[in-house]
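Section 5: illustrative case.
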């Protein structure tokens, strides 16, 4: 039976939460399609291809491409919710990385012309992967606490600016293909074992903030960046670590985080192909709720 505060929570498949969590918490999921060497994959991609084999294909020079969700798909979805009078929060891959959020906005404007009272809230996560996962988990908790769909959407809009995402990658050439580095810088960096450390910016784009030599140094810098973004007495509830087929290093990063800050839970998971296609195998993302906004972090340290 639905109550006044019942609403649906939906994600796209750039969010890397486990299927078990999604099912247990009644979360809906809309797939983003990707192609791997010409073969198309949809929502059930890990049934079609294992994570290990996906990243092995990339290591061997394979090409993966992703496609944004189009406005027509969103319009059909939103119309269905509007007709039923059911509230919806849709947490979407950062508008700084994909046009999917813009597609959702186009669709919502169309649907609101016919159903002006609909309670549908596409939320630009300004994050990716486990950044969307963190916001999803908090949305689930707020729904369980009895907040309305509007109250929960407002809460997420404010909180998302304190969700810091810190990246490092193993192969700079993937960043070059995505337009983040010149080819010369990528080749030179790879030859010198230069490892970039990137942050999700206030607008949800990826930006190279530091470069260090060697993998261990990049993990140390990620840990230091986390430490300087929280207060001395802060106890973090959950830190998320996602990786692209480098679990041993993800577990090492988890140990370094535990040795550096106070944290109740660290969740380590595999990054899916929607983000993995663009960062390549050997990437790591550290995601958590900081004690400052991204704007404040950038102003203080960069």
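Designed sequence:
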């Amino acid at each position: 039976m639905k109550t006044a505060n019942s609403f649906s929570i939906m994600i796209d498949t750039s969010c890397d939460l486990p299927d078990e969590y999604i099912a247990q918490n009644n979360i809906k999921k809309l797939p983003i399609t990707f192609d791997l060497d010409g073969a198309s994959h949809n929502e059930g991609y890990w049934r079609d291809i294992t994570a290990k084999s996906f990243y092995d294909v990339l290591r061997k020079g394979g090409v993966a491409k992703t496609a944004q969700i189009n406005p027509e798909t969103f319009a059909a979805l939103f119309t269905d919710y509007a007709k039923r009078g059911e509230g919806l929060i849709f947490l979407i891959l950062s508008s700084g990385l994909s046009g999917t959020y813009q597609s959702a906005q186009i669709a919502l404007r169309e649907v609101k012309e016919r159903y002006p009272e609909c309670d549908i809230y596409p939320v630009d996560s300004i994050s990716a992967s486990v950044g969307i996962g963190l916001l999803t988990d908090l949305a689930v908790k707020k729904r369980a606490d009895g907040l309305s769909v509007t109250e929960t959407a407002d809460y997420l809009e404010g909180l998302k600016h304190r969700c810091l995402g810190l990246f490092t990658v193993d192969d700079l050439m993937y960043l070059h293909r995505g337009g983040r580095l010149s080819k010369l810088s990528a080749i030179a960096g790879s030859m010198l074992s230069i490892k970039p450390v990137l942050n999700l910016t206030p607008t949800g784009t990826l930006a190279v903030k530091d470069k260090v030599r060697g993998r261990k140094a990049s993990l140390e810098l990620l840990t230091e960046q986390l430490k300087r973004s929280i207060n001395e007495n802060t106890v973090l509830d959950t830190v998320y670590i996602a990786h692209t087929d480098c679990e041993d290093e993800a577990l090492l990063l988890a140990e370094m985080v535990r040795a550096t800050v106070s944290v109740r839970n660290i969740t380590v998971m595999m990054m899916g192909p929607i983000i993995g296609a663009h960062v390549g195998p050997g990437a790591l993302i550290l995601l958590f709720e900081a004690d400052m906004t991204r704007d404040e972090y950038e102003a203080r340290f960069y």
